């Protein structure tokens, strides 16, 4: 998008409309990198592979696209200029690696589109999906706690030890570089406290960032964000920022998600993002996740329709092995056939009482006030 003017909300609205009303976000990048043999026991975490094995990052992005993901998130979550400098890199080299994280994702998208052109069917025999569709690249920005690499990103307790200006200065150059690297949007992820959300919102305005953003928060109790700050106040910050086009929850146990969606809906009219973890908790001493036994991946996938009915429209968090099933479940929640396809013809269709419930569930608040019988007038995309 460069320096062109844009209406931020239209970016996500257009994407969701062309995607049928909801979309699939990729899953854990780090998990899949480890499946390929990457050692991520490092303060840089998955960003370490930007230095050692960028080809693995590209392959994981491609794997997720072939499994059905509509949005891929870059490997920059824990990639900070300060973190790279601690490894002995210069500021210029650090900025180049941030750009590289976006370039790798863009390359994966281009390769995928070329494979779609070369493939004669949407679905390969091995389960891979080759269907040319709108795909977004989201440049990931992790919180200050992620840079600390001590588990603080899951507690957010540093909000009492740093200032708003400190956080803005910490994130400023990284946000500038990522915004100018060709990504479609910036994903501010796993935000654990109100102060950091304020820092992000102010940065977007102060730096006149020319691509939209989403804010996603983490929660440990299903009521507040991880630090204990009010979810209501955090979402209000996102709702008030014109450059934020979606808001939601990530890295949070699935059992909390339904209630959190309902809470978010009370504050914002923006699309709601949901990409939880599998219910695990982080052990800072072991630097590892403790995974519960009560939730299977099949259960996780089955939650999608419930979350969609509650009001979410962007879903992710599942591992690569389950993305195909996950994507199929998400697509079963999409708009009726009248809305599907590359272009939508002008249509006048009376929706009967039994159909309207499904339309409400899928389209959310846009149809909530319509009568039981209505006329849909869909405009060509």
UniProtKB/TrEMBL annotation:
GO biological processes: methionine biosynthetic process; methylation; S-methylmethionine cycle; translation
GO MF terms, alphabetically ordered: metal ion binding; S-adenosylmethionine-homocysteine S-methyltransferase activity; structural constituent of ribosome
Keyword set, alphabetical order: Metal-binding, Methyltransferase, Transferase, Zinc
Keyword flag Transmembrane: no
GO cellular component, one term: ribosome
A Pfam family hit: S-methyl_trans
Domain Hcy-binding residues, every copy: 11-333
Matching NCBIfam families: PRK09485.1
Protein name in the entry: Hcy-binding domain-containing protein
The organism of origin for this protein: Protea cynaroides
Lineage: Eukaryota, Viridiplantae, Streptophyta, Embryophyta, Tracheophyta
